[in-house]
Design brief:
There is one protein chain. The protein is of the alpha+beta class. The protein contains 11 helices and 21 strands. It has helices spanning about 15-25, 125-130, 135-150, 160-165, 170-180, 195-200, 230-235, 285-300, 345-350, 400-420, 480-499, and strands spanning about 5-10, 30-35, 75, 80, 90-95, 100-105, 185, 240, 245-250, 255-265, 270-285, 320-325, 340-345, 350-355, 365-375, 380-385, 390-395, 420, 435, 435-440, 465. Strand 16 and strand 17 (about 390-395) form a beta hairpin. It starts with a strand and ends with a helix. The site of flavin-adenine dinucleotide has 38 residues, from helix 1, strand 6, strand 9, helix 8 and helix 11.
C-alpha cells in the first residue's frame, strides 16, 4: 500500500523475479512483487470463452498497449495478418526501438506466458563464452539441475514423435538436416508432454495442438505461475501487485529505498501513484525493463552512482527467422504442434543453432520454418534521451547480416541439397529473412561489470539485478534455463551473506 514498507521488493515476475521470490520466502523473508502486466490467472474469458486467443486470431488480448497487432510473421501468401485492436494490457509486448522490435511477455509470469517453453542448457564447452566470470562446475553440478527441476523440464516421448501428425513438420526438418549432414537433436521443453499426447487422443482440451502460442496457452504449458510462483505463493510470504509499474527507485533514510509505482488500468491509464519503502530491491523487469529503469535512474539523478557499465552489453541472442519452400512430396502438415521439439546444431561449424519451428496456420503450407540463434557478437547500448525522456537502444538492423550469414551455413546447404528455395512471403513483400526482431533480449546490466559477480549493483547496497540483463548478449541456445540457473546461484549467495 501507498506509504508502506516491505523488507524486499521484486520488480517483475519473470524467471529471475520468480526464483528470487521463492528462495527469499523459503528463507523466511516477506517479499512483495510488482508486475506491470495483468494477472492472467484472474482475467475474464474473451469472446471465444477462453482466457487466451489462438495464434491465428490475435485480438485485444494479444498485444501490450498497441492499436494494431504486430504478429512476428506479418504476411502470408501476400496477405497481411495484422489488424486494428483497442489498446489493452495484452500479453505480448512488441517493443519498438530504432533498429529492432523486442518481443516480451507481459503479465504475472513474464516471458513464460508467451514463450515456446524450449528449455535448453548450453553445452558445457560453450559456457565460458556465455558467462565468463561464473564457475561452470558449480553451474552444471548444482544450479542448472536445480533450474531444470524447478521449471519442470521434460523431453518428448520419441515413439509418439514418430507417430503423431502434429510433428510431421519436425520430421521433415530432421530429414532435411540429416540429408545435408547436420546434427539434429530433440530439444527439452516445459510443456507437459503427457498432456500433449492426451490432446492428440482427444481426451482433453487442446492447447499446443490447438494453435495456442505467443498470445498465451490455456492448458499444458508449465508457466511460472504453475511452478516457481505457485510454490512461492504457497509459503504465504509472497504477495503480487499486477498492473503496477515501477517508475523510480531512489535511496531513502535508514538504508531503505523509496520505490515509486504507477498503478494502471487495462487501457493503460494511471489510476494511482504510490510510494513504498523497501529494505532491498531486486530488478527483475527483464533485460529491457531492467536496463531502461537503471539507465534512466542514473541519468536523471535518482541513482547517480551506478557505474558506466549500466546500459551496456546488450545483445539479441543472434535471433533470425527464415522459411523454406518444400517440394510437394514434403508436406509439413495442416496440423502442427505450436511447441517446437527439435533443432539443428551447427554452432561449432557455422555459429548457428536453428529450432525447427511450427507454422500452425491450419492449412498445408509446404513450408519449413526456423528460428535461429546465432553467434552474433554485436552489442548495443541503452542511453537516456532527455528530449523524449525515453531510453533509446543503439542496435542497428544491418548488424543482423552477421546472423543471416551464420544461419545460411545451414539453410543454403539444405536448399542446395534439396533443390529448394527460401520463402519470401512471410515478412512482407519479398523479404526472406526475419531480421527485424528478437525474442531473446539479453544484457544491459552485465554480471561482474554493472554488478558484482552475484548481481549486486555497484554503488548501492541492497539493490540487485537478477534477470536476463545480467547475461552479456548471447547464451548459444534459448535463454530462460540459463537465466533461471544464474538466478538460483546468485540468490543462494545473497541470502547467505546479505540477509
Ligand atoms: P521476463 O520474463 O521478461 O520478466 C520480466 C517481467 O517484468 C515481465 O513480466 C514484465 O512485464 C515485468 N516488468 C518490466 N518492467 C517493469 C516495471 N517497470 N515494473 C513492473 N514490472 C515490470 N526462451 C527460451 O529459453 N525458450 C523459448 O522457447 C523461448 N521462446 C520465446 C518466445 C517468445 C515469443 C518470446 C517473447 C520469448 C521467448 N523466450 C524463450 C525468451 C524468454 O521468455 C526470456 O528470455 C525470459 O522470459 C526472460 O526472463 P527474465 O526473468 O529476464 O524477464
Amino acid at each position: 500500500p501507498d506509504g508502506g514498507r516491505v523488507p524486499v521488493l521484486v520488480i517483475g515476475t519473470g524467471y529471475g523475479g520468480s526464483v528470487a521470490a521463492l528462495r527469499l520466502a523459503r528463507a523466511g523473508i516477506d517479499v512483495h512483487m510488482v508486475e506491470m502486466g495483468q494477472d492472467w490467472g484472474a482475467a475474464p474469458a474473451g469472446p471465444d470463452g477462453k482466457i487466451h486467443p489462438k495464434v491465428t486470431s490475435p485480438d485485444y488480448r494479444s498485444f501490450w498497449m498497441r492499436t494494431r497487432t504486430k504478429a512476428p510473421i506479418s504476411n502470408f501468401l501476400g496477405f497481411p495478418i495484422d489488424k486494428d485492436v483497442p489498446k489493452f494490457a495484452g500479453i505480448l509486448d512488441a517493443e519498438d526501438f530504432a533498429g529492432i522490435s523486442v518481443y516480451q511477455g507481459r503479465g504475472v509470469g513474464g516471458g513464460s506466458l508467451v514463450n515456446g517453453g524450449m528449455a535448453v542448457t548450453p553445452r558445457r564447452q560453450h559456457f565460458a563464452s556465455v558467462l565468463p566470470s561464473v564457475n561452470a562446475d558449480e553451474m552444471y553440478a548444482t544450479y542448472y539441475p536445480r533450474a531444470n527441476s524447478g521449471l519442470g523440464v521434460g523431453l518428448i516421448n520419441p515413439d509418439w514423435f514418430e507417430r503423431t501428425s502434429y510433428y510431421q513438420y519436425s520430421r521433415v526438418g530432421r530429414k532435411h538436416a540429416q540429408r545435408s549432414g547436420f546434427a539434429w537433436t530433440f530439444v527439452p521443453d516445459v510443456y507437459d508432454w503427457a498432456y500433449m499426447e492426451a490432446e492428440d487422443n482427444g481426451s482433453v482440451p487442446k492447447s499446443a495442438l490447438g494453435q495456442e502460442i505467443l498470445y498465451g496457452n490455456n492448458y499444458g504449458k508449465r508457466t511460472l505461475p504453475k511452478t516457481y510462483l505457485a510454490q512461492a505463493k504457497a509459503t504465504g510470504k509472497v504477495t503480487i501487485s499486477p498492473l503496477h509499474e515501477v517508475t523510480s527507485v531512489t535511496p531513502a533514510t535508514g538504508g531503505d529505498y523509496a520505490v515509486v509505482i504507477r498503478q494502471i488500468n487495462t487501457s493503460g491509464a494511471t489510476v494511482a501513484t504510490k510510494t513504498v519503502k523497501a529494505g532491498k530491491v531486486f530488478f527483475a523487469a527483464g533485460s529491457v525493463g531492467t536496463s531502461k529503469l537503471l539507465v534512466k535512474l542514473k541519468a536523471t539523478g535518482a541513482l547517480p552512482q551506478l557505474n558506466a557499465e549500466v546500459g551496456k552489453g546488450w545483445g539479441e541472442n543472434g535471433n533470425v527467422m527464415v522459411g523454406r519452400a518444400n517440394h510437394l512430396w514434403d508436406p509439413t502438415g495442416d496440423v502442427q504442434s505450436t511447441i517446437p521439439c527439435s533443432g539443428i546444431d551447427n554452432w561449432d561449424g557455422g555459429g548457428a543453432f536453428a529450432e525447427v519451428a511450427p507454422l500452425p496456420t491450419g492449412i498445408e503450407t509446404f513450408a519449413s520454418f526456423y528460428l535461429s540463434i546465432t553467434k552474433n557478437t554485436r552489442r548495443a547500448e541503452f542511453t537516456y534521451n532527455p528530449a523524449t525522456q525515453k531510453v533509446d537502444l543503439s542496435w542497428q538492423r544491418a548488424w543482423k547480416q552477421d546472423s543471416i550469414n551464420m544461419a545460411k551455413t545451414i539453410f543454403d546447404k539444405i536448399n542446395s541439397k534439396e533443390g529448394t528455395i527460401y520463402r519470401s512471403d512471410l515478412f512482407g513483400s519479398n523479404r526472406v529473412w526475419g531480421d527485424h526482431l528478437t525474442y531473446h533480449p539479453l544484457g544491459g546490466a552485465v554480471l561482474n561489470k554493472a554488478t558484482d559477480n552475484y548481481g549486486r549493483l555497484h554503488g548501492y547496497p541492497g539493490l540487485y539485478v537478477i534477470d536476463g540483463a545480467l547475461i552479456p548478449g548471447n547464451t548459444a541456445v534459448n535463454p530462460f534455463v540459463t537465466i533461471t540457473a544464474l538466478a538460483e546461484r546468485n540468490i543462494e549467495r545473497i541470502i547467505a551473506t546479505d540477509l
